[in-house]
Amino acid sequence: MPDFWKRIGAPLVFGALTLLAVITMVSDRGGRDASERGEDVSWWQGVLLDVASPIQKAVAAPADGARRVWRDYLALLDVRDDNSRLKSRVAELEEENLQYREALVTSGHLQRIAEMRDEFETPMLASEVVGLDVSPWFRSVLVDRGSGHGVQAGNPVITSEGVVGLVTATSGGAARTMLLLDRQSAVDGIVQRSRARGIVRGRGTADLEFEFVVRGGDVVVGDVVITSGLAGVYPKGLRIGEVEAVPDPGGRLIQTALLRPAVDFGRLEQVFLMLRRGPTMDLLYGEGGAREMAGGRPAPAPGSAAPPAAPRGPAS
Amino acid sequence: MRRAAVLLGFGLVLLWVQGGLATFLPPHFCPDLGLLLVISLGLWWRGLTSGLCMAAGLGYAADALSGSLLGLHALLRLVAFSGSRLASRQLNLRGPLPLAVFAACASVAYGLAAVGLTHFFSPSSPPSGDAGFRGLVDALVQALVTAVAAPAVSAAVQRVFAWAGEDEAARRPLLLEPRGPLA
């Protein structure tokens, strides 16, 4: 009998562990779907994110330290020259700014511009990137703001340069963000110049691909691609990237251009989480998400760029 | 038990190193140290059942620090451990060159399986021909880098074994199975 158990012990353990891994994958997939619908992730997924957050912070600490030393000391050798140059530039710009303000007030446009800004403003939350994906096959980052700060799965993540990605899972104090570069990422985009529409997909590499219909698709190298706002995730007009190559379609109806992302993903440190979910997503997944956005959102964290009003931006 | 705890700790340190490297190097120029540890375990670890549990544990740790589906790395590392264990019964993989070649093959298979399983569980449109080709090139680069690091990780695992006070009896001897009747 002990011989029998000895013989089948290892296969049994292998089978059990394999089954467990498959179950956790299916369960995690279900959890992500629920998360996209605005429901909370299961407790164990939240715990896992909370545990991973400080570990990833520790993982990134030495690299951050080295980068900080470089930024604070070595790269500041020319700071005196830069400083005097920038001071004179600031003085120039302040004077220029004053002239513009005067002109706007005079023409009566200032009030209208202020109203437009209020209309399109989306509450945003500044957040630090605390960890990179340790697997080369996936492109995600962990940020240090979570559902406790009002972040939900489906919230867009941006920087001043352009689109970073999308929140896919949240816990109380952390959120996992799938980058545009991930193979599973797809964003509806338009060429700013010609308004040609297509889909921007991640390739798992440093660049993106832009799929568009050849007929009528006027896309040339150097064109800027922005979000179209039609897929229901990102607001319209966020910068995605710049076309760097347009290979010959070779008789195909769908052509693929290569894009250089607007965001430098290699130097991602601070990002902004847009505390909004597109109305199309709420329509797709029912009213639950919308109700949660309107009524169930926690108080904004310090650093929130605007009051947590329901989003009034352009339909996306 | 002590050796298992020390090796699990070593696995977490390797993940920490890999995460640190990822901030400086492009993703596919970072060796998959976690995979190498599991392969080394398959070659050197004596207990099959405890080895399987450790491989799964290290896989779950990688899942927690990655954007993959939870359980994906656990499943693939179980397979990698079993594969290296089975392969080492037919081939002597303990030299640097055979180990590097095996690690390169395992790395390519691992990458393809990771991408395939992710598409299976989270269906999305398949990559275009060009993107698929670039993905394959990236997988080959990753395999090359992983192969270069393989002998060093294997040597480090043996050092950890020695440091954890392991006696010779606990280390798995090299037992190559004959393919046919011996003359």
Give an account of the 3D structure:
The complex is a heterodimer of chains A (316) and B (183). Chain A is an alpha+beta fold and 316 residues long. Chain A is 38% helix and 22% strand. Chain A has helices at 2-36, 43-72, 79-107, 110-120, 279-285, 288-295; strands spanning 124-132, 140-143, 156-158, 163-170, 175-179, 186-191, 197-202, 208-213, 224-227, 239-245, 254-261, 270-274. In chain A, the strands form 2 sheets. A 6-stranded antiparallel beta barrel of chain A has the order 1-2-5-4-3-12. A 6-stranded antiparallel β-barrel of chain A has the order 6-7-8-11-10-9. The model of chain A is unreliable at 284-316 (pLDDT under 50). Chain B has a single domain (2-167), classed as Arp2/3 complex 21 kDa subunit ARPC3. Chain B has 6 helices and no strands. The termini of chain B are far apart. The interface between A and B is large, with 57 and 52 residues.
Oligomer: heterodimer
Query: What's the end-to-end separation of chain A, in Å?
Result: 66 Å
Q: Provide the structure class of chain A.
A: alpha+beta
CATH architecture of chain B: Orthogonal Bundle
The beta-strand count of chain A equals 12
Q: What is the arithmetic mean of pLDDT of chain A?
A: 75
Count of β-strands of chain B: 0
Helix % of chain A is 25-40%
User: Can you tell me the CATH class of chain B?
Assistant: Mainly Alpha
- Give the fraction of residues assigned to helices of chain B: over 70%
